[in-house]
Amino acid sequence: MPPAPGLCMATLHITDIEAAINYWRARSPSSDGVTLAPQVRALAEVYALMVYFHEDEVACEGFPPKAWAAWLAWYDTTPDTPCIAICSTSQGDASCKGCGRTFDEVQRWPEMDPVAKRATWRRITREGTAWRFNRYAERAAEGRAAPDDGSAPAEPPTAPIFGRRR
């Protein structure tokens, strides 16, 4: 069920709709290449309207119930918090060096609704300055072995992007 009127003032970004569509496409692939799973169809209607009207964001208030249920089911599969257990806000920083959230976001995280959490995730991912995106990402990349022929290691495959790139 969508949030009650007045309870959700935030918006969902089109990339979250795309991610939810891709999740459901992978989870419930079309048996005939044409028929969409009910969750994909519900989210695709919202996505199509966003593309048609050139909108990057959509208000969660008034979201179609089936699309909201599909989006929430996808959301439940995502990591809840960007925390990497190195919180510099406890040392007085305005923004955490580990995860990129502001002091206020760290403090209010347990009470934030899913849409507000996704907006925070989007901001810190876009900024990409937190240790979770550089220092620790580089450590993970160092563990990849180079192929025997001396060429660069192959990049892991990425999931298909639904719609336009942002």
Any overview of this molecule?
It is a single chain. The protein contains six helices and two strands. With 166 residues, the chain is mainly alpha-helical. The protein has a two-stranded antiparallel sheet. Helix 1 runs antiparallel to helix 2 (38-52). It is elongated and about 55 Å long. The model is unreliable at 139-147 and 153-166 (pLDDT under 50).
Please describe the structure with a list of short key phrases separated by commas or semicolons.
166 residues; 41% helix; elongated; mainly alpha; single chain; 6 helices
Radius of gyration, in angstroms, nearest whole number: 19 Å
- Amino- and carboxy-terminal Cα gap: 29 Å
Biggest sheet descriptor: 2 strands, antiparallel
Mean pLDDT: 83
Helices, by number, come to 6
Q: Outline, from the CA principal axes? A: elongated
Order of helices and strands: EHHEHHHH
Widest β-sheet, arrangement of strands: 1-2
Tally the beta strands. 2
Classification by helices and strands? mainly alpha
Helix content: 40-55%
Would you identify the regions where 5 or more consecutive residues have pLDDT less than 50? 139-147, 153-166
Strand content: under 5%
